[in-house]
Structures
1.
Amino acid sequence: MLIDSRKLPIDEIINTEVCIVGAGPAGITLARELIGQDFRVCLLESGDLEFNQETASLGEGETVGDPLRLCRQQGRRSL
């Protein structure tokens, strides 16, 4: 079921046992793995069904200090 929260009453409460924040690849994969379980799952995503630059800008950020670099080498993660 797809619900647009902009159309819900301001005091609406959504009851769920599991809430996944972010419908990127990891969030969608996790939600799909939980299909058919004996509990309710809510997958939250900001924005609309179509691309919106204003919403996309919410994920922008700035690194301050030393940048974090992750590399995969021979099955190991190094910083």
2.
Amino acid sequence: MEIKGDEIRRRMIEHDLLDPGGFVLVGAKITGQLDLSDVVAKKPLVLRDCTTEQPVLLDRAQFSQLDLRGLTAPAVHARGLTVDHNLGLSGARLSAAESIDALHMRIGGSVYLDDGFHAAGSVTLSGSQISAVLMCAGARFEAGLVLVDLRVGDGIFLSQGCDVSGGGVHASVRLRGTRVDGQLIFRDGRVSSPDVALDLRHVRVGKELFLPFDGVDGKAQLEGLTYEGLPRDATVDEWLSFLATRTLRYSTQPWTQLAAAHQAAGHERDVRRIRVAQQRDLRRRGQLSRWGRAWHLIRGVTVGHGYRPGLALVWLAGVLAVSVGVVLISGAVRCSTVEQVGYALNVATPLVKVDAARCTVDAGAASGQVVLATTWLLQILAWAFATLFVAGFTGLVRRNA
């Protein structure tokens, strides 16, 4: 069956004469251009499994429902399109370099780009509002998916075999500034790019984020991404590796968001791991001066940046061991072996004092001078490690209070 695009436009303009079920056409070939721009028809339009050799124009049109499932066409242009209920493009095949240009749509129900949907060119839904679901399960996007500043009520599903590649100089999937009141799900999907695969900057997810990293082939931008609860489909170790190696640059916020999620869940051990890994990433990729990087390294080695104060006790024990070794090996301290150990502890530790009053040091000998100089240095280090332990432990208690 063949029908002219102008005939479809005429019937939709005269929509008062249509059945309440609207205009329904299945398996037809549409000749000429289907131009429904600025048509206001508060009835459904169903063009299921239809084909056309020219782009479908829907700019600023209004329908109660729009069903284009199985459509074969070069492209769909739908800037400012309004649909009271659902917009269906399931199984559609679009071949133009710009397959869908649909800025600022208003969809009262869901948008379906699923069930074998295939776009050879870019798909843009930026600035649109979708009250229910954006469903892209099982779809293939060869030149990127642009969802910048989108507003979605129930959720976005880039899952169940959804494959997005391309995107040119931008990310394959661009969700920057998008707000999802429900879930954002990448489960069993694939996003790939030689450069940036996924742009989630300043995305707000009202409920869970399902993001398995084995489906992301390329870099990601996560600055400003927020979500409720623990992120799903990836372990803490996978998150730590991804943030440190698969993001474009160091940013504090993704680490803070991940730590806050685990803090709210009561996972204190994971919170400390995340914070320590964040500090390593800061030292490696952050904007620190040479001295700032050196001090940062010292803090990390000695107290784990305040999250592992027990490390300072390990270093303190090492200082005491060195002090004992120096005293015993030097032969410059005159007293019994047990008293020499007590003397070494006395001069090195700020915390422990034992009876070593009978011990004397042969200060005239070179070995005695070495003992004195070394124990002074070790005493400074011991005081420093003890202070770091107390400060780190106190700070950790305050953070956990």
3.
Amino acid sequence: MEIRKPSVLVIKSILTSLVIGSLLIASSVLLVRSTPPTQLEQVLEAGELRVLSSNGPTTYYEGSNGLTGFEYSLVKGFADSLGLKLIVEDESDLDKMLNSVAGRHVHFAAAGLTALESRANKVTFAAPFMQVTQQLVYNSRLPQPASVADLNGKEVLVVANSSHAERFKALQAEFPELQWRAVINAEMIDLLEMINKGEADYAVIDSSAYDLNRYSYPKAQLAFDVSDPQPLAWAFPTQRDTSLFDAAQQYLNSIKADGTLAKVTEEFFDRHIEEVTTGEAMAFTYRLEQRLPQWIDDMKAAAAEFGLDWQMLAAISYQESHWKADARSHTGVRGLMMLTKNTAKAMGIQDREDPKQSIRGGAKYLSIVLERLPKRIQGEDRLNMALAAYNQGLGHVEDARVLTERMGGDPTKWDDVRKYMPLLSKHQYYSRAKHGYMRGWEPDGFVDNVCNYHKIIGRHQQQEEFRIATTNTGNRLSANTRQVDTEQANAESNNLKSAPGTVSVL
């Protein structure tokens, strides 16, 4: 068999093919490597998620242990799912917010935004996380209006630059005499208060805002729905790269499916209020006798370490957890004293659900708050303000004190501060406060409850000590009585034995 050697031309041709092939492979690799990373990859690389929101009651605000709020909780959950640090930027102007999102200055906006078609030309909305209905409220001194037609010739308040204003513009085509006034720098809670006080007759708010605040403003009654249910959603930039948007969609779908969304919604919006019933009183008594005793020694030890009253620690822990060591909230608060992760870390606590550690952490935190209050605040005023700070944070209490002084009150007196503290839930006041929005109505109830529990616990302990003392005295008396009886019986027996001519009668 003849074996031919390849010619020089053939060899050159093969080598050329190999070189060209290698260049093509190298070029392909370079092309693959030069493909820009997706937005999601860029965000993950940077380690930060930047979100635009508006400081307020249903979005985000500063709580006693850092930022909190309904929408903040959802966004924080998304950031945590990606392992990202959440950075929230505040913007109260709706137009500026949407323009900032459209210009890609932030990753997205989460501010109770209604996903209206008129806004879809600027941004892309994710899957809705809640449905709200625009509702008309009126002052109860007036007849209840039945429809929009009943509002002709009457002034209706709406929040400026809101979906409510857009809705009334659309309704004006059908009802030309319809009038409304857009209130600048206001929240829906401000409109509710105006209706409740009789400063205005009609206003439009969201169903969620009405459900949240209807107990606080009883004269603001619901009349009828102004719109069909409308979706609230996060607003993303409109762009080809949808990787971050898709990740948000996947997260929202997952929290709907596993019930997390329902739990967060209930936490912030279901404020069912009822009077204390006989059953509640019995439950407290049961817990006082069955749960508290197991924690008393730890409370006494922590109180002694930080110079506090252990019964006050008991009262706080009952208000926070009903003395349940494993109490927890989806917002991250846990344990007997319901400490957040950040507070526990700052207090040197490793395990928040360990009762001894939780009690010590709560005691240390209360002692720090008490120490940081101005020295001129004394006595019960100092304790009450410390309790308010335990509930809402020292920064908010300081804001309330500044506001109290501005309004002519005494910032060192709790009765004055508690009077003005609820104003910090209103935009015109919290927008100028250093620490922004707070749930201004909560500290008043928290302080009153803790003080009441403290009194009841104190009385119960006095009764227990009296009972124990009485029992011990009774036992001593009984023992002494038995001893006297025995000695007397012995003496009588001896007398009988020694007396002549006596007969024992059996």
4.
Amino acid sequence: MTTFASGTDTLTRDALTVLQPGFTGTTAPDWLLRRIGEGLASVGLFGRNIASPEQLAALTAQLRAERDDVIVAIDEEGGDVTRLEVRTGSSFPGNHALGAVDDVELTREVARELGRRLAECGVNLNWAPSADVNSNPANPVIGVRSFGADTALVARHTAAYVTGLQSAGVAACTKHFPGHGDTAVDSHHALPRIDAEASTVQERELAPFRAAIAAGTRAVMSAHILVPALDPDHPATLSRSVLSDLLRGGLGYDGLIVTDGMEMRAIAGTYGIERGSVLAVAAGADAICVGGGLADDETVRRLRDALVTAVRSGELAEERLAEAADRVRALARWTAQAGAKDAAALPGARADIGQLAARRALTVTGAEGFTPLTEPPYVAALTPVANIAVGEETPWGVAAELGRLLPGTETGSFAGEEAGREALEAAGDRRIVAVVRDEHRHPWMAGALDTLLGSRPDTIVVEMGVPQAAPRGALHIATHGAARVCGRAAAEVLAGA
């Protein structure tokens, strides 16, 4: 049962209620359980908290023993961004692969099965889907996390994803409002700016969010981006014009508004997390996400005290904080009710739906003259620096999957101006499979392919990012993502499986 520490006053409880902190370890630390007893209503999980489905289920049960309606959130997009399978790679292709197939029923099925697995482990809020229209091919942080560059396509698949996920009893958190697709800067590192006209933002960026709201998304996540056409002075997360006037007033949204991680440099490096959290709640945010980098009791205390102090000084209206806390509690009630049904008994649940989707997402060029490999090749992974959302823990590529089909397959990772020459030397006389991510964004990668194909025209190219560059190689496979299932689907083509 839910119990609260008797000494916790209403203002302090409300300040704790609006926080979504993280922690380290695979069991809940004492400080976190104590804060839940004092009114903390949400906990965010990351890859560091997950070792297995069984361990995760035990962890969420531990949290619910302290508070039965606690919201347990996770950043599980499937595809490149996975926390459930952070050490193995995802069993589900990401948004870009689903957009490439463009079958909304398939997207709904994938999201429902992903939601079923989350619900089985006790997770009831997913910081997904990404509703960003990837209109800027140079975008360093969205890319394959987006369904695509076509607004209508992104809108219909966002709605399908929301419907599928929530049918499993897991609340969707559609992100990153008002749209992170037309950026060339990663908000983990700095504050991106979108200089589109207001009419463009309305027609392009906002359409998928309208679709998500119509589909009943229970939460929306704000973006740490500056859109001068909407607010020339404040990033969206801190903007009353964006959150209260546009999202609430203009789009008619009445669910939970969650911030993106407040320790991201776009906020922490300009406002600081305490000041940023106060401004976010004042602007209309209901929940403060923090914990990807700062994951300790001191962070929770600092943010709690900053909110309480802001109310007592008159900087933050007590009614606004209370309203935010009430929205968190409303979502907690929904998740508790939705979680009461048996997600495992969902009609049509298919454990293999992710692999089937990954196979359908492949675009293969040059297959007419291609003979499947019978000897183990050399897989040259031309590896860019991973963005923070994806992380470096999660394996990617085709080597592991190809090695299962063709034992003896060898692999190496290469980067920089000498990558092509080094890969040629490492491969020796083996057939080369060059694996790339976003060739169009990395001149050194394009140069490495020039070197490989110049010396070895029979080189096979597998593009696991956004396939913007022209297909080349003896065979070219675009997987539209680097999830484990995408690698397996490509390996099956290469080995004729």
